Every structure is written in C-alpha cells, then in structure tokens.
Amino acid sequence: MVAYEALTRGPIGSPLENPDALFAAAREEGRLAELDSACRVEAFRAAFAAGLDTPRGLFVNSEPEALALLAGDVRPTTPAMVLEITERELTGDPAQLLRSIDHVRELGWSVALDDVGADAASIALLSLIKPEIIKLDLRLVREMPNQHVARIMNAITAHSETTGSIIVAEGIETEKHLDSARAMGATLGQGWLFGKPTELPNPLPTIAGLPSPTETIAEPEGATPFTIAARKRVARAYSRDLLVEISRHLESQALAAGETAVVLSTFQRASNFSGEAVERYRELGNSVAMVAVLAAGLEPDPALGRVHMQGIDKADALLHEWSVAVVTPDFAALLAARELAPADAAFDGPDQNDDDRQFEFVLTHDRAITVAAARSLMLRL
User: Fold this and answer.
1) Torsion of Cα atoms, 26 then 36 then 152 then 260, to 10°
2) Domains in the chain and their CATH numbers?
3) CA within 13 Å, CB half, 66
4) Which of 338, 340, 321, 336 lies closest to 372 in space, CA to CA?
5) E strands present in 137-232
6) How far is CA 27 from CA 20, 32, 65, in A?
7) Cβ contacts of residue 334 below 8 Å, gap of 6+?
8) How many angstroms separate the CA atoms of 333 and 247, rounded?
9) Paired sense of beta strands 331-339 and 358-364, if any
10) Per the CB 3.0–4.6 Å rule, which of 124, 143, 336, 358 could disulfide with 226?
C-alpha cells in the first residue's frame, strides 16, 4: 500500500449516484468548478480526520476546467498530496493548467495525469505537464493488443524513461489484467483485485506515499522562445524567406503526427496571419491535439474552430519574435526567431511582409528547449 485515492459519488439511489453523471450535470449547470472544489475540500477534511498525513499519500482529483479554484483550496499548511488531473478538456485553458500545476508543485505536491491513452491530448501534453505519475486508462490493460495500445505504450515508455515518472494501472480486476499492466510498464496498480472502494480504515495502516515532485527550473517571467533558445544555442541570421520554409516544414511534421501533436506559433502581428497561413492552421486545428497562434491585434475567430487565438501586448518582447514549436511523443522542434529591424519600424510603420526582412534565429530539436519555449507560449494563452 503506497497511497489512497479520494473518490466521490452522488446521493445513493439517485440518478446522480454515478460520478460521471454527477459531474456531467454540474458541467451542464455551469457549476463544475464549485462541485470540484467541494469534493476536494471534503477529501481534505476526511483525510485530516483520519490522520492521513503521509506526504503524497492521497490522490485528489480535479477537472482541468475547474482548476481556477485550486489555489484557494490548497494552502501552505495543507499536507502535500497528489493532484490527479483528469484527461477531459486538457487543452481548454492551457495557461490555467500550467499555473495550477506549478502552484501545487511549489507546495511539495506531485502531479498525476489520469486515464492516459483515453484521449489523444493526454499523450500530446505529457512533455508539457511532465506528470510524476501516469495513470493508464483501464481499457489499455483490458483490450487485446493492437496498434492503438502499442502506440500509447511506446509514448508512455519513452516519457517514463526520460523523466522517471511512475506508471500506475487502473481497473485491475483479474490476474490477466495484472499481467497486462506489468507488460505495459506499470509498477503500481489499483482495482478490485486489490480491494474495493471503501471508507478509510481505522486505525490507518502505515503507507509509503509517493516520491517528491519533479524539480523544475522555472523560466523568468516574460521569457520568450528566442531568449530561451538563444541561451543554449548559437543564433544565426538570415532573411524571412528561409524562415517561412522552415515553419512550413515543422507544421507538416505536426500534421503527420496528427492527434498527438501540439503546435504553438507566433506571427508578430495579425496582418502576418492571413491567406495560406490561416488555411494551414485551420487544417492543423482539425488534426492535432492543440494548436495556438499568437500575434498583436489577433482576436478569436470562430471559423478557425479549435485554434487558440491570442493577442500579444505591445510591451511584450514576444512582439518582435516569430516562432513555431512542435511537440509530439517522439518529435520536438523549435524555430525561434527575432527580427533585427528597429522595434518601432516593424510594428508602427507600414507592413513589411517582404522576404528581405532580417532575423536572428535558432532552430533546434532539443526536447527540453522546445518544451520550455512551448510552455512560455502556453502561459500567455
């Protein structure tokens, strides 16, 4: 026994007894964050009352859509736990997702990503969330081996080898499920084979708890893809025409990866995001897990569907950069460029879309640099 998980159900015998029905109803009524917070606070109360104070000895679930209230629920005096984030709506509010994760890690919490494999976004965002614990979707240990299972297994194995994250298998009810879980790299498991959900025992047995959270080096506030990349790699200089072709190549790599890719790009100002670029990103929005475009003067466009559109403040150094970051389970690349023209000439004067514009740029396939740059853009969404 290493930890417990706090589970919630609705009133017994009611239509909302099933947690999926309960949370779906709360989402429909616009009260998901309120329910999520209430469940979390009740989990804290029950754990404290039972004397459960083992560091990271309790998994507490949270919906990504409801993380805005997390900071108010979790205080410095709250014992360190494991924040378990569900796979639903992971890309809905990327900035809030990252801020919440960073907040609890500062307090000694670890992060678990739930139902990995159930949704492509959970695989696509592994490198950006960097969970200490990966919880496999229960269907992965119950399905017959197929290409989907193999694809998920490869992505999870690669991430675990790189980061040291722990793999947990859910829904283990038989010895066969246990064998499948072990084959997929799981070292911990939960399910009815080990015990059914129940109240905390009294007295509590001694449990091990989970390891400390990953030590992350936060980028300075206002960091940009170019400043992040240029600290680690030598920048080169060339005109706009080469950068256009590199950008299109990276975008095509994301399209080839499909639903497990994340793409974040900056276009300096809205007038640069037009014509063919709009059509390329419309296609990306229909194909990849998450795509975002940032530019000064850019506003949301319903016609672009799932593409996150974000303006850039004139005081933001990002205004002078052109970047494309692509992250997939087995590919990472970053083009980060900064225009060499005087700052005011590029933005307050007439459009300068010709190929003679000069940039200093870094092109790298280093995953750590690419992920850091991608996070710097996600935090602006």
Assistant:
1) 70
2) 4-189 (3.20.20.450), 225-378 (3.30.870)
3) 25
4) 336
5) 166-169, 188-189
6) 10, 5, 9
7) 225, 229, 323, 324, 325, 326, 362, 363, 364, 365, 366, 369, 370, 373, 374
8) 10
9) antiparallel
10) 336
Of 251, 377, 255, the closest CA to residue 308 belongs to 377
Task: Compute the Cα dihedral for 318, 322, 327, 333 and give only its sign.
Answer: negative
- Please write the tens of the pLDDT for every residue from 59-102: 999 988 888 888 788 877 778 899 999 877 788 899 999 998 99
Instruction: Transcribe 327-373 into DSSP letters.
Output: EETTEEEEEEEEE-S-HHHHHTSS---STT-EEEEEEE--HHHHHHH
pTM reported for the whole predicted model: 0.90
ω into 79 cis (within 30 of 0): no
CB 123 within 8 A of CB 87: no
Q: Which residues contact 98 (CB under 8 A, 6 or more apart)?
A: 128, 129, 375, 378, 379
**pLDDT per residue as tens digits for the range 353-380:** 566 789 999 999 999 999 999 999 999 9
Rounded-to-integer distance, Cα 242 and Cα 250, Å: 13
Range list of β-strands (E), the chain: 4-5, 58-62, 82-85, 110-116, 133-136, 166-169, 188-189, 236-239, 262-269, 290-296, 307-310, 321-328, 331-339, 358-364
Amino acid in the structure at residue 260: T
